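> forwarded from #structure-qc
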């Protein structure tokens, strides 16, 4: 890093660029002097090995570097206007101009009348290992549209990013009670961001060496599962993560005999994770049946759900049904942090989503439960 910019300022810029934050929403730290930090900018962003292997969308690269060039040129002019000797003058590094020129053909990424194609997004975060200050990274192949092929599961959503940052700040959440082996079941895994992060964090702690995968990521859409498996491979976790179909409706209709229900009981998860799964009222009973089986098979397990409240009626219905089914729910609000303190970027950037609800579910003793059927 250049002495003219703190590591945190360039890390913040890298995190936004790699996660495809639109240039108009990108925060350039005031402490970052781009004109005198060009070498660091090139090393950390332009020549970043991860981004060289999995580059952001070309259209995004073009918009970002166009903005950077304008900022650098402005900084160079300002600097050179305040020095007396030509030897002290600065100039724009040709490599920055080169990346702008190479990305000029941005329209090649997008058909004139069509949506933007899928692209790589990389989420950088502080290494969980206390022995290094290197950044860790998760790279995903994601859609850039809200709905694609009839599903919302082909992109990462804000609640996943928010709960992921919470897990980084609270690593004890990934510890099983009584020193038992950790086994994590993710529901509605989508493209895989949250499950991949959990697998990386467990690996950093030495969990699961030479054992069966301790993280199982599930979804129901075949296209989503295919994309998820591909992202697991990109992050070199195919031997640590199992990606499999789990149909909540099948479990709900045959809780004692379906193959998916049998798998949940056999896996004995110590932690069930899900983000942004409380959105369709018709799916809530099926979700609660899956959670009931998971906790019924391992009463010491935890259920952690992250929810963006888009429809308060649906959210309140979930809480009501959960209480009827014998769950105790503890709520915690994950507010959006100031830009300078955030770890993960992307998701619904710029849409005004401020708070994400974190829900902890446990099963009450059987005598305290409502015996009415859940249909």
């Amino acid at each position: 890093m250049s002495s003219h910019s703190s590591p945190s300022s360039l890390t913040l810029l890298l995190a936004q660029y790699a996660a495809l934050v639109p240039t108009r929403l990108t925060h350039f730290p005031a402490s970052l002097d781009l004109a005198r930090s060009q070498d660091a900018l090139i090393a950390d962003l332009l020549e970043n090995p991860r981004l060289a292997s999995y580059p952001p969308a070309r259209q995004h690269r073009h918009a970002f570097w166009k903005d950077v060039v304008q900022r650098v040129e402005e900084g160079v002019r300002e600097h050179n206007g305040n020095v007396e000797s030509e030897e002290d003058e600065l100039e724009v590094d040709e490599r920055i101009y080169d990346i702008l020129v190479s990305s000029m053909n941005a329209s090649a990424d997008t058909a004139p009348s069509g949506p933007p194609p899928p692209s790589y997004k990389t989420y950088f975060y502080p290494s969980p290992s206390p022995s290094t200050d290197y950044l860790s990274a998760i790279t995903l192949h994601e859609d850039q549209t809200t709905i694609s092929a009839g599903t919302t599961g082909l992109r990462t959503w804000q609640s996943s990013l928010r709960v992921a940052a919470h897990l980084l700040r609270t690593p004890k959440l990934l510890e099983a009670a009584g020193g038992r082996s950790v086994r994590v079941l993710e529901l509605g895994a989508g493209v895989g961001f949250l499950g991949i992060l959990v697998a990386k964090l467990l690996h950093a702690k030495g969990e699961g060496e030479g054992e069966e995968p301790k993280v199982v990521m599930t979804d129901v859409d075949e296209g989503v599962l295919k994309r998820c498996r591909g992202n697991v491979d990109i992050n070199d976790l195919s031997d640590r993560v199992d990606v499999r179909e789990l149909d909540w409706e099948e479990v709900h209709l045959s809780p004692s005999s379906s193959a998916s229900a049998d798998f949940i009981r056999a896996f004995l998860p110590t932690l069930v994770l899900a983000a942004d799964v409380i959105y369709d009222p018709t799916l809530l009973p099926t979700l609660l049946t899956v959670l009931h089986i998971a906790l019924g098979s391992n009463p010491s397990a935890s259920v952690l759900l992250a929810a963006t409240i888009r429809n308060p009626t649906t959210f309140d219905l979930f809480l009501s049904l959960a209480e009827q089914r014998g769950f105790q729910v503890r709520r915690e609000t994950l507010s959006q942090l100031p830009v300078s303190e955030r770890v993960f970027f992307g998701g619904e950037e710029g849409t005004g989503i401020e708070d994400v609800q974190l829900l902890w579910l446990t099963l009450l003793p059987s005598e305290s439960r409502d015996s009415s059927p859940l249909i």
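QC bot note: Residues 1-7, 367-375 have pLDDT under 50 and may be disordered. The chain is about 35% helix and 15% strand.
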